[in-house]
Design a protein that fits this description.
Layout: H1 3-6, H2 9-32, H3 50-61, H4 64-77, H5 83-86, H6 89-106, H7 111-119, H8 121-155, H9 159-177, H10 180-208, H11 211-217, H12 236-253, H13 255-262, H14 267-280, H15 284-298, H16 308-316, H17 321-357, H18 363-389, H19 396-420, H20 426-450, H21 462-483, H22 493-496, H23 503-522
Helix pairs in contact: 2-10, 2-17, 3-13, 3-14, 4-8, 4-15, 4-19, 6-12, 6-14, 7-8, 8-9, 8-17, 8-18, 8-19, 8-20, 9-17, 9-18, 10-15, 10-17, 12-19, 12-21, 14-23, 15-16, 17-18, 19-20, 19-21, 20-21
């Protein structure tokens, strides 16, 4: 029986009521705040404190798409995917200790702007295009893909139609309440999502007979964070070597993740907020991966791991509650799609069209260009989403990580060397951003589509492939910089004076490191 067949009319009524209420709140807020149209909301006036920073970073990372994917990988491989949550604390620490002082010391508003100040307008322009690609692939297409899977499970529609339904809902949100709907309801949605996932975990544990019975019913190695080197799914060398490439890019150089730290009231608040994010990431395993493991025990005959989360919802929750879960997932997915389309439109219109091609453009032309870019971005994203849906041999979580793994190497290389190595030159940075992007994404296209890994066995694990690309680009960065006679970039005096960490911040990071070490000791060796 499909998930759709198990839903009751009450569930669809709850979905409709929830979406209507959210749209109504957004419309009311949008109407009440019409006078603030000219206000720049991107960095919140540099007023963010550590709780807001931590919740924002965590909420951006663990949205519904990753929730569905995490349950899927928990069903197939157990807790090993917890590395993507717990191992991340090292790179969040890198953001707090190394990158944040430099970003805030330079007074930057965007990361392309930061690198542009150091290496020139050409670097800023290349990074703007790279940001567009990142938004299209990682934030928009992957979200549409996960949302399409959710809609497909609920309504039984094909992927292309599921994606169109999701885009239609997103457009309806925008027309009724605009992006302010998202801003004023996102925290509520995340809290509700946490409560729902916690309830799902507790009910599932009770149905499975408790933690001892759950451990007994799962295969050997399901509770190990590090699997043998010959494991086909996630061998430990791939985790140790490959994830850092993705981790540095995602946590230290991606605008969507770093923006809340850039809006911190002070460096200390930014570092405390990053630390809070590290603590929140501990919750990913019990809230998002454990439901997938429970589904493996309770419903071992499930034909598609990507259905693990919704199967748990429909089997363990009563009618009405199932509808509430679907409504929260859909609304939060729509918020990500709306935000991604808005970011895509903003970056292209302001950083490329106006700055480079039409600086004299008036407000009407800018607005019209933004609308056209939004429509074009949506059309391109649908095509990319359908291409992602054609990937064979990978579940939803692996699709997410493999795609991100091929996006990450150029940005990780450029920021690590550009920020930490004084000899890095503009020519080297621009060369890696252009050639490295073509190489990395070209390799990803070959791995996922042209010579898919499930058919051709000569490929290494995608995380190791990401690591090899990073090594190659690093060697090229060094060689080009050393042979370039034009000289390296100059660091601003404000950035040179960037402060380190206070005693309280160091203590909290030390405590988090101890907890992580204990977790890795506990969840290995079974």
């Amino acid at each position: 029986m499909n998930i759709y067949d198990k839903l009751q009319p009450l569930d669809f009524i709850v979905v409709g009521l929830y979406l209507a209420i959210v749209i109504g709140i957004g419309a009311w807020v949008s109407f009440r705040n019409r006078t603030a149209v000219g206000e720049n909301p991107f960095l919140a006036g540099n007023s963010l404190r550590w709780p807001g920073i931590g919740f924002t970073m965590w909420g951006t990372n663990v949205g519904p798409s990753m929730l569905i994917a995490s349950a899927s990988i928990g069903f197939t491989t157990g807790i090993v995917a917890g590395n993507f949550a717990w191992y991340a604390f090292i790179f969040i620490f890198l953001l707090a200790a190394v990158f944040a002082p430099r970003y805030l010391g330079a007074g930057t508003a965007t990361l392309p702007g930061y690198m542009g100040n150091r290496f020139g307008d050409t670097t800023r322009n290349i990074l703007a295009w790279y940001t567009l690609i990142t938004i299209l692939v990682s934030w928009l297409s992957l979200t549409l893909f996960a949302g399409g899977i959710l809609i497909r499970q609920i309504l039984g529609l094909p992927m292309w139609l599921s994606v169109m339904v999701l885009l239609a809902i997103a457009a309806f949100f925008t027309i009724a309440g605009g992006l302010k709907t998202i801003a004023y309801t996102n925290v509520f949605q995340m809290i509700l999502l946490i409560i729902v996932s916690l309830a799902l975990t507790l009910v599932g544990l009770d149905r499975a007979g408790g933690t001892a019975a759950l451990a007994t019913a799962t295969p050997s190695g399901f509770w190990n964070l590090f699997l043998p080197a010959d494991n086909p799914d996630y061998p430990w060398p791939a985790i140790i070597l490959g994830y850092p490439v993705m981790g540095v890019w995602f946590w230290c150089t991606d605008q969507s993740m770093v923006q809340s730290v850039l809006g911190a009231k002070s460096l200390k608040q930014g570092q405390l907020g990053a630390n809070f994010t590290g603590w929140l990431k501990i919750l990913d395993v019990p809230l998002f991966i454990l439901p997938g493991i429970l589904c493996y025990v309770l419903f071992p005959d499930l034909d598609d791991p990507d259905k693990a989360y919704m199967t748990m919802v429909t089997e363990l929750f009563p009618p009405g509650m199932q509808g509430l879960v679907m409504a929260v997932l859909i609304a939060a997915l729509v918020s990500t799609v709306d935000s991604a389309l808005n970011a895509l439109s903003t970056v292209f219109t302001m950083d490329i069209y106006v700055k480079k091609y039409k600086p004299e453009a008036g407000s009407a032309e800018i607005r019209r260009t933004g609308h056209l870019v939004t429509l074009a971005g949506a059309a391109i994203a649908v095509c990319i989403t359908l291409a992602i849906d054609s990937i064979k041999g990978l579940n939803l979580f692996d699709v997410f990580q493999s795609v991100l793994g091929f996006i990450a190497p150029p940005m990780t290389t450029v920021f690590l060397f550009g920020v930490l190595w004084k000899r890095t030159t503009t020519k080297a940075v621009n060369s890696i951003l252009t050639f490295g992007t073509l190489l990395s994404m070209g390799t990803g296209i070959c791995y996922l589509w042209i010579f898919p890994a499930d058919t051709y066995d000569f490929w290494p694990h995608f995380l190791l492939l990401s690591f090899y690309l990073f090594l190659l680009l690093s060697v090229l960065m060094v060689l080009i910089s050393l042979t370039d006679k034009s000289g390296s970039a100059e660091v601003s005096p404000e950035e040179r004076k960037a402060a380190g960490m206070s005693g309280k911040v160091r203590w909290l990071w030390g405590a988090l490191a101890v907890v992580m070490i204990v977790l890795y000791v506990l969840f290995n060796g079974r």
